[in-house]
Structures are given as C-alpha cells and as structure tokens.
Amino acid sequence: MSLTENKNQTISNPQTKDFLADEYFPSSEDKLPLVLFVHGYKGYKDWGAWELMARKIAEAGYFFVKFNFSHNGTTLDNPRAFGDLEAFGHNNFTKEMSDYNAVLDHYLTHPKVDAHRVAIIGHSRGGGISVIKAFEDSRVKALITLAGVSHFGYRFPSGERLETWKKDGVMYSENKRTHQQMPHYYGFYEDYTRNRRRGGQRQRSRTAASVGERISAAVYQRRQSCFRCR
Fold it and tell me: Which pTM does this prediction carry?
C-alpha cells in the first residue's frame, strides 16, 4: 500500500513553544479516522518501534500522527536527542496537556481527517496523560494505553527527599541510555499538586481501577455506532 509520510511538521502552541509531528496516511478518497500517539517519560516520537507502529496503523486505513511534546528535551533541529535539558527540566503536565490539545486542534482541520473518529494512544507517562485527555475531551472516541502509568502521584519522592527537592529547587534523574543527568525543577511537582484532581486523581489511595471505570464510561458514552465505520 502506498503511504504518504510527512516528517517533522511544525506544530505551534503559543502557550508552550513549537514542536514537531510526523503524519502517515494511505491513499484514500474518503476521510480517515485520526490516531494520535503520545510518547512517555524521557521518550520522543522517533524512539524504538514507533516508526513501525505508525506505518502499520496507517496501512490499516488510519491517519496516524506521532509527536514530540514541546518540553520533552528534544529540539526542532534534532528531534532524536535531548539537546535542551533546560526545557526538559521545566516540563510539566499542564504543558503536555496543552500540547496535546494543540496537535489535536491542528489535525482535526486536516482535509484527510474525519474529525468525528478520533483515537489516542499513549505509552508509559503518555498513557496517563492520554487517560486524562480522553476523560476531558469529548472529541476523543477511543483510548489505548501501552504500559500506562496508573497514578502520577506515586512517581514523586516523599518525606525528606521531597523536602530536599523543594529546598534545592531541582533534582536529577539519569537517562540510562544516554547517561545524561536530566533535571526536574520543583515547579513540576507544584504543577502536579495544583492539578491533582484532574481525571479523578484526588487521593493516592484512590484505586486505578475505579478511576479507569469512570474514564472508560465517559469515553464509551460518546462513541456512536463505532469508531471506524467503513
């Protein structure tokens, strides 16, 4: 099957900054269902098997998009390397949700996209972000997570380590692949605490299953006859 592949398309987001997206779609006279893929923590759109996944899903008759979050640490000039650790350090969930909205807005106006058939896929932390996006955005009709996180709060330090982070203003996490010391500024945690009620994450004790049931119900209710009607 013949595929059109447009790599490193610039998506503008005035609330964050420009970032890059790749699009894949087959030849078709009809508009195609849109599938957006979101990478995870210390990830990027060109990592691992995402290229293979993009082509396979597009070959199945979908308009597939994968993108880099604006503050994932990559740059417009080099989307495969963490060349902007300062941006990585200032990343937070609010920025990622804003980028998610910007890329969805952008592609829903594409002439090849059926705006009424939208699915999102998220890997790891991107899976958690995708769960919240599906819960909040009625345009999303289907949700898939790949090893998605169940609760963002469990990922943060507590006790003395949290106090040290607050005092120092920054903590570092080694990238085991590149051996870079990647910063997290304390504002990352503050952004989480301001938004912890989004998607039902009210308490650490709240089970992932109960949150998942609420979100699954919300997504299911807005599905019409099916996601892909061909």
Answer: 0.88
